[in-house]
Design goal:
Elements (H helix, E strand, L loop, with lengths): L5 E4 L2 E4 L5 E5 L7 H14 L3 E5 L3 H13 L4 E4 L4 H9 L4 E4 L7 H14 L3 E6 L8 H6 L1 H18 L5 E6 L3 H14 L4 E3 L7 H17 L5 E3 L7 H14 L8 E4 L10 H12 L7 E5 L14 E5 L3 E6 L2 E7 L3 H15 L6 H17 L6 H24 L10 E3 L11 E3 L1
Helix pairs in contact: 1-9, 3-4, 6-7, 7-8, 8-9
Bound molecules: iron/sulfur cluster.
Length: 432
């Protein structure tokens, strides 16, 4: 269930129906102002809405005062074990403080922090981690780890409510993707507060991105989660931000920058698409517009499934085609494909218009038609997928028709067309 309440982190609304907020954490020593500010600027540029900094020492609190003043995005102070540091971070102007009520020294200390946060109007994030559940939940954790995580979070929520503090978001973090999904689903049913999602210690850029995409993507697709952080083992926090955005873009929850679509390639590929796609992806990072760019390894299928793309290229051995929104723009030599593609994109970004030269378009269309005709009989992956889709649609129609005229399904059993038993002039259904 989506959160009903929201918090305001330095002007960024989290929860209550606001767009999912992207956050990350600096990897520098917070007290190293130059390095920390440089990283914050990089993550802000990459699209972080909020940044979190670890504050384990007094010298980090000192730096925090400058960081919150100079940061282009709101700053959350990450505190563990030490409620005095939490109080100091609040006084330093942090836009939010993250703490784990279970390791901060007991309810009295939590109350002290909540009082100060109330005075300053600063929200908190209260977090539960699978590795640090309260002792009284350890037996339950062995028996039912998901319930133990949820119960710990609910107990912390109840503690905050007893303290009459409701300006917080909640996180349940686990290294296990299934536990994270199950725990957040259950928690979202039990509390109205915004949820911070993340997979703890997800791993390297490759495996961590995948785990996060599966875990967070599943929850976000259900409408659960108000802010996300991708935890990756890299010193480059902006990489976490990029992954977060790819997840949000894939789910169409937010838009930022271009979307690249590319065919998986197959034996029909006639140019070095690996290199070309990587170069296009890298160059697209400079653009803020949510343009869709398609790269097709060959022109055998025509523009096909990429016809909705704002711009695209499809290549052949010596020549390729630039296309836009389902129409050819021009034929170009293979080695000019990428340059010409970006020339078109740049023209569009500058003028908001796609200029079409009729002669070039006709030449491109003729080239495309020739290639399509020459390869009309090829069963490409796209054509096989289209055949499969058509077959499924046909079967669904036949089953619908059979159900409608009472030939099948009276007992509620779903039937399917039995291809092997179906003569041309008749249809037979078998139980699916
Ligand atoms: S047939 Fe499809 S998958 Fe194969 S190279 Fe061409 S566009 Fe790519």
């Amino acid at each position: 269930m989506a959160s009903q309440r929201h918090v305001n982190v330095g002007g960024v609304q989290v929860g209550g129906g606001a767009p999912v907020v992207v956050q990350t954490m600096t990897k520098t020593e917070t007290a190293n102002l130059t390095a920390t500010m440089a990283q914050i600027r990089r993550v802000a540029e990459a699209g972080a809405d909020i940044v979190r900094c670890a504050v384990p020492r007094d010298k980090d609190v000192e730096a925090l005062k400058t960081i919150v003043r100079e940061s282009p995005i709101p700053v959350i102070a990450d505190i563990h074990f030490n409620h005095t540091l939490a109080l100091k971070a609040l006084d330093a102007g942090a836009h939010c403080v993250r703490l784990n009520p279970g390791n901060i020294g007991g309810p009295d200390k939590v109350a002290e922090v909540a009082r100060r946060a109330t005075e300053l109007g600063t929200p908190l994030r209260i977090g539960v981690n699978s590795g640090s559940l309260p002792k009284h939940l350890h037996a339950l954790e062995r028996e039912n780890p998901v319930e133990a995580l949820v119960r710990a979070a609910v107990e912390f929520v109840e503690l905050m409510e007893r303290l009459d503090f409701r300006d917080f978001k909640v996180s349940i973090k686990s290294t296990s993707v299934p536990y994270t999904i199950a725990a957040n689903r259950a928690l979202s049913e039990r509390i109205p507060y915004p949820l911070h999602l993340g997979i703890t210690e997800a791993g390297t850029k490759w495996s961590g991105s995948l785990k996060s995409a599966v875990g967070l993507g599943t929850l976000l697709a259900d409408g659960i989660g108000d802010t996300i952080r991708i935890s990756l083992s890299t010193f480059h926090a902006e990489e976490e931000v990029k992954v977060a955005w790819e997840i949000l873009k894939a789910l169409k929850l937010r838009e930022r920058g271009p979307v690249l679509i590319a065919c998986p390639t197959c034996g029909r590929l006639q140019f070095d698409m690996d290199t070309v796609v990587a170069e296009i992806e890298r160059r697209l990072e400079r653009y803020a517009d949510p343009i869709e760019v398609a790269v097709l390894g060959c022109a055998v299928n025509g523009i096909g499934e990429a016809s909705h793309a704002d711009f695209g290229i499809t290549g052949a051995r010596n020549e390729g085609l630039i296309f836009s929104r389902g129409k050819p723009l021009k034929k170009v030599p293979q080695e000019r494909l990428v340059e010409e593609l970006f020339a078109e994109i740049d023209r569009y970004v500058a003028s908001r218009r796609i200029d079409v030269d009729a002669a070039s378009q006709a030449e491109g269309a003729a080239w495309l038609a020739r290639i399509e005709e020459e390869n009309a009989g090829d069963l490409t992956p796209e054509r096989l997928a289209a055949l499969e889709r058509a077959k499924q649609a046909e079967q669904a129609d036949l089953v619908d028709a059979a159900l409608a005229d009472g030939r099948a399904g009276e007992d509620g059993v779903v039937l399917r067309l039995d291809e092997a038993a179906s003569p041309v002039d008749g249809r037979r259904f078998t139980r699916a």
